[in-house]
Write a structure and sequence with these properties.
The protein has 280 residues and is of the alpha+beta class. It has two domains: 2-72, 2-Layer Sandwich (Alpha-Beta Plaits), CATH 3.30.70; 86-257, NADH Oxidase (3-Layer(aba) Sandwich), CATH 3.40.109.10. It has helices at 21-25, 53-57, 83-92, 106-116, 136-155, 166-174, 199-216, 226-233, 238-241; strands spanning 2-4, 9-11, 31-34, 37-40, 63-64, 129-133, 186-192, 220-224, 249-257. The strands form three sheets. It has a four-stranded antiparallel beta sheet. Strands 1-2-5 form a three-stranded antiparallel beta sheet, with no helix packed on it. A two-stranded antiparallel sheet has the order 3-4. Strand 1 (2-4) and strand 2 (9-11) form a beta hairpin. The longest helix is centred in the middle third of the chain and has 20 residues, at 136-155.
Length: 280
């Protein structure tokens, strides 16, 4: 075994076919061929962005980095969905506004977040913070505190013209209808430190991946901007209440859980606005 402890880089020489694919695909030329086998270049290891391309491109599973076992990776391309399946997923995902009361197992949510942690980020800086509410007592308390905060904002006439809708939200709540949280059993917020390259894009990509994964698992989701708007008029700092760092860029919220509604076909909204460019 050729071991470089800086990146926990290892090559299983019994598997390695000396093709050099990992060396060629390394974005920052951290790897080089040495004595016929790939090895790290000590002068360039600090450029590593932890992309694991070297692990993924190795045809025999000989390469490992950061202590990752290549045998635990899913094989490609046979593990990928077909183009038709992806089309059905994109066309068939729905915004779910009716949920069953029973919560998802904690192991299911943890597995989903572990998968979504693989979503692309700017410069491969994986610093998004996933704030999730799993237990029903916390969801119920969040609903009550949010609605009482909105009730005070309405009573004190602190709603701007654009947020006047929350008057109807409070009235609906008093009538037993939860317009904001939709009685969803779970909530996911994604935030990111402002120091990373693309915090807004990173958050939206992560949430989009979570939504797509949820749809394949029969789990409903709802993108929710109203929660963020509601927090903006509540005197209590609800982001701090949820443990989100003050300096973080806050993204939107996803409600999720088992849907209480079933959709039987995809919709047809194919009117794409396209700007085709042909330069000469």
């Amino acid at each position: 075994m050729d071991l470089s402890m800086d990146l926990q880089w290892t090559i299983d020489r019994d598997r390695c076919i000396q093709c050099g694919a990992c060396v060629d695909d390394c974005p920052f030329h951290i790897l080089e061929m040495r004595d016929g086998y790939p090895a790290t270049n000590p002068k360039r290891v600090h450029h590593c962005i932890r992309c694991q391309h070297c692990l993924a491109v190795c045809p025999t599973g000989a390469a490992s980095i950061f202590g990752v076992n290549p045998d635990r990776s899913l094989p490609l391309p046979e593990s990928l969905p077909s183009a038709k399946q992806m089309e059905a997923l994109i066309r068939g995902r729905r915004s779910v506004r009716f949920y069953k009361p029973e919560p998802l197992p904690s192991t299911t949510i943890a597995g989903m977040l572990a998968t979504v942690a693989n979503a692309p980020t700017g410069k491969n800086k994986r610093q998004c913070l996933f704030t999730v509410i799993e237990d029903q007592e916390s969801m119920a308390l969040l609903r009550r505190e949010t609605m009482e905060g909105l009730r005070r904002a309405v009573a004190e006439r602190r709603l701007s013209e654009g947020l006047g809708y929350f008057r109807h939200v409070v009235t609906a709540w008093d009538q037993g209808r939860d317009i904001i949280f939709r009685n969803a059993p779970h909530l996911l917020m994604v935030s990111a430190p402002p120091t990373i390259t693309t915090p807004d894009a990173d958050m939206l990509i992560a949430m989009s991946y979570f939504e797509m994964l949820a749809a394949t698992m029969g789990i409903g989701t709802l993108w929710n901007a109203m929660i963020r708007w509601a927090f903006s008029v509540i005197e209590t700092d609800m982001f701090k209440r949820l443990g989100i760092p003050e300096d973080h860029v806050k993204g939107y919220t996803l409600l999720f859980g088992l849907p209480a509604v079933r959709y039987h076909r995809t919709v047809q909204r194919d009117e794409a606005m396209i700007n085709r460019v042909r330069l000469s």
